[in-house]
Every structure is written in structure tokens, then in C-alpha cells.
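User: I'm preparing a small set of examples for a lab meeting where we compare how different chains pack in three dimensions. I only have the primary sequence for this one, and I'd like the structure in C-alpha cell form so I can line it up with the others. Please keep the answer compact; I'll paste it straight into my notes.
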Amino acid sequence: MFDPVCPTDLMPFRVGDKWAGMIIRCLEGGPRRFSELRVPLRGITAKVLTQSLRALERDGFVSRREHRGPVRHVEYALTPLGRSLLGPLDTACAWAEQHWDELIDAREAGLEQAN
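Assistant: Understood. Below is the C-alpha cell output for the 115-residue chain.
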């Protein structure tokens, strides 16, 4: 899913936006800082990551926690609602893997028709 050559926008459904599923996956192992999220999400800009995190927080999938002290930072974590999306994401990813060639062929055919 995080492979640079993987067309992740082939995800058959989206929660929020193009990046939401990948952000949820990044938070699967526990809370992460903004800068830690940018490592696996190489193609995302800081602006889009901020917008996506805000949308996921607004929709109840992600929580934001500010840590005050000598080193102030913010961490993002999945809420129970966000964690409940992991099963459906697994199912969608398995489906996409099973139908990968068909998805690629359909995408390429659509691009040819548009040109």
C-alpha cells in the first residue's frame, strides 16, 4: 500500500478523501506525530495532510492530543470508531489485490477514452 509505484487511488471506496485510508493504516500501530506520518505518506503535502487529519478528526476517526512541556508536540491516534475501519480496509485491500489487473485495465481504458 505504501509502495511508491502502487496506485493507491484504486482503493474501491474512500472514507473522507484520497489519503484517509492510508492515514488510518499509518495510525494502526498507535499514536504518531505529524512528522512521523509524513514518512510513509511520501506523496502527501503538509497542507493536504493537515486537511485530511482535520477531516478525520471532525468525522470521529482520529483524535488529536497536544503534549505540553519542554518539548511541545501533537500526536494523532485512531479512535474506537477509526479502529473499526481496519477490518473493512483489510477486506477492501484484499478485494483490490484480487482484482488488481482488472482495475488497472479499466483505469487505462478510461484514460484512453478521455484523450
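A couple of notes for your slides: The radius of gyration is 16 Å. Strands lie at 32-33, 62-67, 73-78.

User: Perfect, thanks.
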